[in-house]
Amino acid sequence: MTELLITSILILVKLILVFAAVLGLAAYMVLAERKVLGRMQLRYGPNRVGPFGLMQPMADVIKLLTKEDLVPAKADRIMFLIAPGMASLIALLSFAVVPFSPPITLFGRTIPMVVCDLNIGLLYFLGLSSLAVYSIALGGWASNSKYALLGAIRGLAQLISYELSMGLAVVPVVLTAKSFSLTEIVVSQADWPNMLRHPLAFVIFMISVMAESKRTPFDLPEGENEIVAGYHTEYSGMRFGLFFVGEYINVIILGSMVTVLFLGGWHGPLLPPIVWFSLKVLAVAFCFIWTRGTLPRLRYDQLMHFGWKFLIPVALTNVLITGAVMLAVGP
Amino acid sequence: MNLWRDIKGTLQAYAVTFSYLFRKPTTIQYPEERRTPAPRYRARMVLTRDPDGGERCVACHLCSAACPVDCISMQAAEAPDGRRYAAWFRINFARCIFCGLCAEACPTLAIQMSPEYEICKRDPLSLVYEKEDLLIGDGGKDNDYNFYRHAGIGVVNPRGGNADEYGPVDPGALVP
Fold it and tell me: Per the structure, how many domains does chain A have?
């Protein structure tokens, strides 16, 4: 009985810590993105609220919370109200399986530094990223607006296409680790990270992850200069904010997935594991921002051609070759 | 191969944006830093004066006729010696579009544009500038020009009969 109680309390504590860390990080990701993008475009970015603009996220939240929460007259009300919550909820849920440090021993107990070490953690993550499609589809459909619907259609097609190459790109990783558990995958990278072992899979995964996060050059669902704001055109106030926060939580979760699957998770010399993990996640997040500052948006047909005619065949070939080599060389 | 060219082109763009991270932004942080406009900068209008301190404006209404948004209005009056001046002169800067047509139309160089660009006000009515607000102490961009010395005042005495008039310009002297 006490065993169960202690385990539950530990899970709760980890949950709150992860929740606070991810939400705080997401808020400051917005600021970091605006600042880094600004510097890349020879501007300063927000620097008025607080020292170096560090209070800008608070100002944004206050602004979003006090704005009017509009629901279009002919919208499907319930769906319209649910969709933004789904966007950030699903993004948050993925963090349950991400191991951010090796298990620590506290008062004679071994505590795994992951909210829930599922033995099918990778499948859970892939499943949740498929569910993320729903928030876009429902948000776009329920708005009863042509721009929102167009954005939702684009989002659906894009996410489904790039999920395939993403799923195929992690197969070599699973072959190496012989497990779907993310902790096992990190442990299997103790010698050298999967990035060096499977460079092609890493590149494919990075590209698919960028498409999955709906950011430039794959931000067609939003496409602000052709379809206003895409699937969240009709949203205002904090409901728009939830979509927005969901996007940045997504950046963090996808960054930690890249870290766990390809960059060796918490492994690294000198610094403590949790610091290495955070540094790697932030480095991937910087790459996302860097890409946004660099590449223009793809056209819709280019996106589809790139996904189906290039990424998926390459990913399939990569799986075949990796499997053959592992079979020949032996475990 | 095309693919190789594409990858190279993409990576070059990344290098460019990364190098821009370490360059100083070109932003001028306005309330703390202000740029000094050039002397010929075309912002708020002023009314200038002769070298000897008289108002240059002869209330000919050419500026208000040229004004595309009709923001200039005035009342003409005549001094005892026959010299024309503006009894009141008003520019509504809430309507002014700073096109500079008034300054171009002015025959006496009285109305000119000045480098003073900070004229935002809360109350639109406080943007209506009267003659006292517009007049400045000197001749602005062309300090030596004096209209009535060249034109003369042909009311009390005939033109050419006033003591302080310049003689006619010798056109031969203007040929280069």
Answer: 1
